[in-house]
Amino acid sequence: MTKPNKTKYLQIRVTPEEKKLIEKIAKKNSKTISELVLDKLLSDNQNKDKFQSLVSKLSKSEKTSLVFAEINDFLNKLTKDEFKEATDEKPKANISNYHLNYLAAMVEYSANRKKVDPPKWVNEIDPLNEPVFGSKLKNLRTHLLLNSPIPFRKRNIFIDSTVGDRV
Known about the structure:
Layout: H1 16-28, H2 33-60, H3 64-77, H4 80-87, H5 97-114, H6 120-123, E1 132-133, H7 141-147, H8 150-153, E2 157-158
Parallel strand pairs: 1-2
């Protein structure tokens, strides 16, 4: 695959110390300064696009549990900065209120695990009116009520495992 010709210039002003640090990081990653900066800027946008794409996939899927597993894997692999960039914008796809609450809880739970603030849109979503349990077995309801992660519980969703866990 051939790389497209680059025909434009972009300059930024940095201090000598910043330039040395950027050069050091680029060298450590076997990249030029331009490659490092472009990769960083474009990967942030790619993560944002990937998050929106997964939410869109959720809106079209009949097997939402598989899509939520994909979202789980995606959120887990992100660094703190990548996470903040990827999840900053409210989902654009039209998904059910339940799925939106579940997604918001996943994002909030991930933010807590990464020790960053959740995006603002998470708090703008009203919780479900009726509780939803992750199991139809009545015997498990007490367990789910007591053990659901707080971001899910406050949205009236009661599950046993969440982001980072596999059943």
